[in-house]
Amino acid sequence: MRLTPRPLFVAFALFAVALAGLPPRPADAKVFSPTVYTLDNGLEVVVVTNRRAPVVTQMVWYKVGSADEPRGKSGIAHFLEHLMFKGTKEHGPGQFSAIVARNGGSENAFTTYDYTAFFQTVAKDRLPLVMELEADRMANLQLTDKVVLPERDVILEERRMRIDNDPGSQLAEAARADLWVHHPYGRPIIGWENEMATLTTRDALDFYGRWYAPNNAVLVVSGDVDPAEVRKLAEKYYGPLPRKDVPPRDRVQEPRHWAGSRVELTSAEAGRPSISVTYRAPSYHTAEPRERAYALEVLSEILDGSVGRLYRALVVEQPLAAGAGAGYDPDGLDGSSFAFWATPRPTVAVDKVEAALRAQIATLLDKGVSEDEVAKAKQRLIDQTVYANDSAGSAAHIIGKALTTGSSVADVEAWPDRIQAVTKAEVEAAARAVLDPVNSVTSVLRTKPTS
């Protein structure tokens, strides 16, 4: 199963953007032209018709992630994701995946700080089958020590492989704990090892009973489907499930920081050194004004990629780095981060690359960006909407992520217009507001000779 996000010093560029109500109606068409409605039990349903292939993707998104875990129970959200494949009265352990595979489909799941999602991609005539399977485990999961305790060993081994044996992940874990010193975003999604080792069957059932309910979930169906037929299936399989009293997502908030921090790790197991500077940043849900998040997306596009400022300056022109870029993910219920990163060339010291990276940040704050840079970045971002319809899964991922992090279908559909409206002045104002050293963590990974 997959956990996100990836290590802080790895930059990523993505188009992942961010009304429910009865009767169903098409949203104002911009990107996906979805049909949106809510079942009587509170399940939000979004249907996107895409006839490019005779397949369909079903995704169920729960509005709960690792940031919602009880104190001392870190990792329970991801652990439960694993345990959701351990069976119900109707379908025993492992049968969910086996049935999907026998029917020619693929499936998986992932956990983040803000949501947990499960998905299947199947031939369109198999949609009733995967709906029945997913609805069954939404309400009828059965767990015993016999299946839970061995799976606990699996997630502990997963942590050892992903983090304990990877210096880059170790550094990212330490850096994130400094970036978010009080908010649960500072905990690893997979959990702290000492707490993971104490998770019990009762812990999993309590978390499941508290958060897994139709009125705390979003069903997104995308592909070669008819919205009216999907509604009939949703009402048949999901409609009978009872709603629950789901608690509010009360989380502690990050206090004011008084100084930036620096974490360094030196390891003989590090493949290559790296440097990153990461700033806490607002998300779509927390930005004030909201337009600031769109401006940060444009800024990230200006800086990142093979045509971006950082690659051109540090890899091509100087050249000091083997790679360089920036990353910003605007989705996040309680905020996000904006990162600059670089990896030195084999003969260049990481400290020299750090100085060059900081010079680029200083130049950005001092001289701003050009109108041409803004126009080209906006066009590249908007062009991505064309590719968002290339597969059935893209719409389901984008819409589900939006609806579980405080955005709406209307926000998704309006995304191209909001990007197009970003101005040079807004990009520069966003940079000045976010790139404050007090709210930053510098991460340095150094290599050490093995002999």
UniProtKB/TrEMBL annotation:
Keywords for the protein's UniProt record, in alphabetical order: Hydrolase, Metalloprotease, Protease, Signal
Domain of life, per lineage: Bacteria
Cofactor: Zn(2+)
Pfam family, one: Peptidase_M16
Residue span(s) of domain Peptidase M16 N-terminal: 46-191
PROSITE patterns: INSULINASE
SUPFAM superfamilies from the UniProt entry: LuxS/MPP-like metallohydrolase
GO biological process: proteolysis
Domain Peptidase M16 C-terminal: 199-381
Signal peptide start-end: 1-29
Molecular function in Gene Ontology: metal ion binding; metalloendopeptidase activity
Classification via PANTHER family: METALLOPROTEASE (PTHR11851), MITOCHONDRIAL-PROCESSING PEPTIDASE SUBUNIT ALPHA (PTHR11851:SF49)
Family, as annotated: Belongs to the peptidase M16 family.
The protein's name in its UniProt record: Zinc protease
Annotated organism of origin: Tistlia consotensis USBA 355
